[in-house]
Amino acid sequence: MSLPELIFSILIFPGFLFTAVIGLLLTWVDRKVTARVQMRVGPPWYQPFADFFKLLLKETMVPEGAAKTVFLLAPMLGVIAMPIVAVMLFYMNINPYASFVGDLIVILYLFALPPLGIIIGGSASKNPLSAVGASREMTQYFSYELPFLAAILVPIIKTGSVKIGDIVLYQELHRSVLYSLSGVIATITALICIQAKLGYVPFDIPEAEQEIMAGPLLEYSGASLAMFRLTRAMMLFLLPLFVITLFWGGFANLWAIPKFILIIVLIILAKNTNPRLRIDQALKFFWLGLGIFAIIGLILAVLRL
Amino acid sequence: MKDFRLWGLKKSPWVFHVAAASCNNCDIEILDVLTPRFDVERFGIVLVGSPRHADALLVTGVLNRKSLPRVLRVYEQTPKPCLVIGVGTCTCSKHMFSSSYNAVGPYDKYLPVDVYIPGCPPKPEAIILGVVKALSKL
């Protein structure tokens, strides 16, 4: 890849611009489906864009006594990481031979940056509620990461490679990881962990509006709040794609579109039909419930089931 | 650029609810506006939990010596541009507390109020109309 090509792919397609537009549209889908579930009409399609540009052009305030630089830079972590994930996922799917050893691990670490940004931002804003939110985000991150990694080990064991390209090729040659007992277990685990990564309702503990207002985002206003919302929108686009890549045969074909829509609708319906857990319940659920479930999947994968 | 900013503000006014010592009736009517029956998310209106996220402040209640500094502080914490919408007759005047030593009069002595919505309490339709009028002032 030449340099202009690389810059184009990171900034426009499939990087920043493309991911942002699709992600914001998906947040509209989310809000519209939520409205229909509640027998409402719901917002028009341009609503997320109006929200985003309004926030972008508003005044940004820094609370007195906050660590100013860290406070303003924390939202950028996720916005920088997500286009890189998008570029890697798209290139590995379109041309699996371009994959390098360990790109799966790189993507996993890039997905860890948005929660890290929220934790840093919440701690830097010098507000007790933000600090509570940041500590909850941290606890939740450590709780869902264990079953998520266990789920991702299943395709690695099945294909014997940590290259995304190899996993995609294996699924094209043989069959998708999903179509086996261990694959089903791993996919269910990964989908539940995605819900937590997105911060959607059973696991929106860090931002619990009724308890700690907006948690780590409490002190954010204007452009930096817009960055946090943009990060979440991009994740709503990229995390289902990541699951499709690893478990459901990649997305370099048209079949990926119904699969993607199915996963998105599942996420939104789960969001609308569940109450919020407490942080200790979430920890117990992820470590004891889902963790053991995922480890059963791992054992089955080792046994080639 | 200015048109763009205006468009964003008009299409997604996020409201923060400042209950400055009201009798709770206006607050309940405001919550009523946000229920699925009236569905203000059609217009992009969302209730937010922090004044830092807000574009419009819905203030309720008779302003008194205790609540005045709090209301001013919330107003200062809201990023500008922000609208201030007074809900209920209490905000327009001192209402039934006109002879009280503690009531310090209508809000626009201290804050740039954009719209007053009279009524005790105002109907949800009236609140929506008030917000629309405040937005068309922009």
Automatic annotation (TrEMBL), chain B:
Which cofactors does the annotated protein need, by name?
A: [4Fe-4S] cluster
| Protein family (similarity comment) | Belongs to the complex I 20 kDa subunit family.
Xref: NCBIfam families? PRK06411.1
Protein name per Swiss-Prot or TrEMBL: NADH-quinone oxidoreductase subunit NuoB
Which terms are listed as keywords in the entry?
A: 4Fe-4S, Iron, Iron-sulfur, Metal-binding, Oxidoreductase
Keyword Glycoprotein in annotation:
no
Q: Which leading EC class covers this enzyme?
A: oxidoreductase
Under Enzyme Commission nomenclature, its number is 1.6.5.11
- Gene name? nuoB
> Per its UniProt record, what Pfam families does this chain match?
Oxidored_q6
